[in-house]
Amino acid sequence: MEFAELIKTATVESVLLSGAGLPPVRGTLCITSHHLLLSSRPGGDGAPGTVELWLLIRNVDAVEKRLAGSSGTITLRCKDLKVLQLEIPGMEECLNVASSIEALSSVDSVMMMYPFFYRPQDLRLEAGWHLFPLEQYYQQIATQTSQWRLSGVNRDFAACPTYPPAVIVPAAVDDEALRKAARFRQGGRFPVLSYYHQKNGTVMLRSSQPLTGPNRKRCREDELLLGTVLDEGERGFIIDTRSAQAAKQARMTGGGTEPKSSYPRWKRLHRPLERGRPLQESFIKLVDACNDTSLTMDRWLSRLESCRWLSHVKAALSTACLAAQCLDREEACVLVHGAEGTDTTLLVTALAQLILDPGCRTLAGFQGLLEREWIEAGHPFHLRCARSAYSHARLKQEAPLFLLFLDCVWQLGRQFPFSLEFGERLLLTLFDNAYASSYGTFLGNNEKERCLCKVKESTHSLWAWLNQPEEKRKYLNPLYSRNALVIWPSVEPQSIQLWQGLFFRWIRSSKYLDEAWAEIQRLVENDDTSVEESAGNRRSQSLSDTAAQTENER
Amino acid sequence: MEHIRTTKVEQVKLLDRFSTSNKSLTGTLYLTATHLLFIESSQRETWILHHHIAAVEKLPLTTSGCPLVIQCKNFRIVHFVVPRERDCHDIYNSLLQLSRTAQYDELYAFSYNPKQNSSEQVKGWQLIDLAEEYKRMGVPNANWQLSDANRDYKICETYPKELYVPRTASKPIIVGSSKFRSKGRFPVLSYYHKDKEAAICRCSQPLSGFSARCLEDEHMLQAISKANPSNRFMYVMDTRPKLNAMANRAAGKGYENEDNYSNIRFQFVGIENIHVMRSSLQKLLEVSGTKGLSVNDFLSGLENSGWLRHIKAVLDAAVFLVKAIAVESASVLVHCSDGWDRTSQVCSLGALLLDSYYRTIKGFMVLIEKDWISFGHKFSDRCCQLDGDPKEISPVFTQFLESVWNLTEQFPQGFEYNEAFLLQIHEHVHSCQFGNFLGNCQKEREELKFKEKTYSLWPFLLQEQKKYQNPLYNPDFSPELTLLEPNTVSFNFKFWRNMYHQFDRSMHPRQSVLDLIMNMSEQNKQMEKDIKELEAKIKRKNSQSDAVLVKEPLQSAPPAPMALKTSPCFKKEQPLMPVNDSVRTIEGSNTADNRYSEFMEEFSKAEPAVVSLEYGMARMTC
């Protein structure tokens, strides 16, 4: 396929661009294989144009056209939730532009995506791809215990097509047993180590559902694998992210859950989390409500309620807290799974780690977490993020699990503003890049696909770009100071907020909030040189002051 | 003291409001003449002023004792369990008596003694001088003058003595107009905008009925519009819903007929009355007080309460007023029914948006003194200071504070004061500890000699103003905008967690950015002071000893504080609370999902070694 075949009109003069809170600007529109450009010519025809728009066509979620007389208006609704309007003179041009954008934005082949063509000068292709090898993570565990080993059973993706080549498994279980256990789990996703809690040596495992089926099949190797995780007399928890009923029903289609009889030392807890289509619909409804700024208070609140997005945030955080609580307070091992083990499972395991492990709360640690628990763990980004909230296309497998995760991280950042090394801006950038990117990091659905497409060889890594000193500075939280403790969030509805920075990013002006944030940054940076630890004591004093606030009428 | 039968009860349990597990703190309950005091075994104290108590409820006896629930006007809710029913009954009856006061001189303000001498007391009351404030606005001037018509509160009992009116409004016009206005509250100046030469005026509804007219009142309005050389048209804002205003006509009251008044534009803005507001707040509190609340129940409860809708209506009205003045340079006359509730809200918020002075600590005090206290917002009735008609209670002033809080959220750099300032004012509006908010109007305050017998709140707040300063405040913030133009789109209004859950600490963010910044700037000031002292010391030394010797330390002196940076890691997040402090426990965080502890029960039975999944012991970092 040639991109040129899809481009019916490459340039149109005198197009009026408006939207996203900027004054309308007229200029020349160009369509290239991957970008939509608009440049204005302030100094007459001879002067070089100013580029007003540089939009990755992959970012376009929906194209709407409206014709009026001899001209037409195209509304571009982007995956990052931005909305742009192009007023194009000439009906035919308008139709051509619209259909070109539509065709280019729906190219579905991974190898045709922009990251394969993007060659920035100041980055090396291989940089950033091997920053967080699982081997390194394993080495950390190996210094604490010898109960775990790094297995190459999936070296050729034979045992599990959605797992990475290397996985961490109990040392006592050999590869042959792993292969058999894999056959007993949906998609071959046998239980593997997700997180080792250094404080007490407990672990969090993840997998997919067991294939017990209607006949209550058993698998000795799977039982053995989970059995060896627990020491003599220990008990563990299985957190199933489906309701008890849904888990039971899954038996009819060959799935199911671990019966007590065959896993007597594991206690099953059901915490239903929404995923798939209902979650995508929740996202669509929320964005729809946010975009309607004419809503009365009652309508706004009722639509915020009926979209259920904040309920999903609360449920995800609560379940992650439960997992973290089992590990940290109960000192018990945990296995997390839903059905496929690629969506809500990863949401819970990644969030729990962020709550428990200060290492994950640094910029590098967070990238490592994303790499390990989302990308390598096989969250199908290509399917889940194919379309965003505006698309009119029939929903296939889209679901904003990753966005939900980012939202939960944002909530943690709101409740613990000093505990995350990165700020909101990183979360926004990750959201944008998960849906449309110049980098290969979120391409494909799993390591096997990325291997086949040679993603690591032919595209640039987002991390390489983010970690350049100049870029990195923008994503750091100036208030950060390492907090070695577990950060337990409040999950009361009164404590959970709508993520305005994302959902209203293009809708309301954030000028005053941005200025205030810049001021905080300035104050902190000026201060960093002069503050020493007594600040901590003073702060504690001010906290008890507020506690005493009501007592001052004595 | 005759109401107090039991002064001390031991082994009382204090339950956590949101915990589903019956976790509690044990301590001793003391009853004093002014406060209810609970001292935990860890010596932590909870003081509750009797005046703050809105309701006391005795719940049915349980195995562990007799539960006593106290709801406070500052939205604190405490749940005690008293071991013996007899004691509980005594405390209950005492509190019922003590929280209801029949006379002003029984209020706390009359026994409160902050150890000031009488000249300090007088000076405290003189801190806010409204004559000075009108001068600041630029009146009297060619068009506006001070009228002595209400010198002895003869024309209007609920207005202050000093009133500013248009120069062309003669005494007969004033008297005539006041007779045509409910409670005699005729149109007077509330705020004068120097640059636009436009005025915010306030009054009560006209006694127009279905057809009555009053020439003096028509002249009065004409005088107001003529006092504005920039725009002869003026707006008349009736802040009530149209239906309410029309219903008033049947009672001989109502609203202005545009045909009878020249050059006016009449506008309804639809803020609901005190009764609607009271029940709205009640609904809001019911929802926010529910244990184990789901997000959807919270949002639908928030919607059903209508509370945020009312806050938005108030702020929308203020924005409408501000546009008339700032864009059209038109004067605006604001009224509702009696002109002391919604009118106070809209006039004061309008002025706050127009004039950055009211966004300073001192200016905000002035604003409250002017539009609320002096113009007769009935604080005593609305806040139930004396035992009276429960139908008169209404959170009108709370709504004003909440509207201001919403503005501070939208303009983080626009206000000199912070949220704590608003909360503290709210606290004292109900505490009856200071004289400012006692009574319903100035006349009453004068007759009862409040200024001689009580203290003013403002000097105390100014004294500790460090606590109330917004560290991000930038007086030059957007200099082109002394005018604030808030965006009143629905999603900008948020539930004010720090007000309604002020005492439910587990719900709040565990780390506060503003506190940190405040401490930092505090510390910087201290360091600058230290540097200056050091420099001075060196200079002194310098002059004493050989100049050559001291030259070096002189140069190195200024960066000296940097050397203090002994540890590169600024410990922003060390555990700040003592270990036994329950305030920072995580308990709140699991209450909503605390339903995730129930699974432990059966499991624990099978395996006694497993500790029950109680979250309560998790200590917060900060």
UniProtKB/TrEMBL annotation, chain A:
Region span, Disordered: 528-554
Compositionally biased spans, kind Polar residues: 537-554
CDD domains cross-referenced by the UniProt entry: PH-GRAM_MTMR9 (cd13211), PTP-MTMR9 (cd14536)
A Pfam family this chain is assigned to: PH-GRAM_MTMR6-like
InterPro entries xref list: Myotubularin (IPR030564), Myotubularin-like_Pase_dom (IPR010569), PH-GRAM_MTMR6-9 (IPR048994), PH-like_dom_sf (IPR011993), Prot-tyrosine_phosphatase-like (IPR029021)
Domain Myotubularin phosphatase stretches: 128-503
PANTHER family: MYOTUBULARIN PHOSPHATASE DOMAIN-CONTAINING PROTEIN (PTHR10807:SF52), MYOTUBULARIN-RELATED (PTHR10807)
Family to which this protein belongs: Belongs to the protein-tyrosine phosphatase family. Non-receptor class myotubularin subfamily.
Protein known as: Myotubularin-related protein 9-like isoform X6
Organism: Apteryx mantelli (North Island brown kiwi)
Upper classification of the organism: Eukaryota, Metazoa, Chordata, Craniata, Vertebrata
UniProtKB/TrEMBL annotation, chain B:
Keywords: Coiled coil, Lipid metabolism
Domain Myotubularin phosphatase: 124-500
Family: Belongs to the protein-tyrosine phosphatase family. Non-receptor class myotubularin subfamily.
Record protein name field: Myotubularin-related protein 6 isoform X2
Record's keyword annotation contains Protein biosynthesis: no
Domain of life per record: Eukaryota
CDD domains associated with the record: PH-GRAM_MTMR6, PTP-MTMR6
Organism expressing this protein natively: Apteryx mantelli
Entry coiled-coil feature ranges: 517-551
Pfam family, one: Myotub-related
Keyword Lipoprotein: no
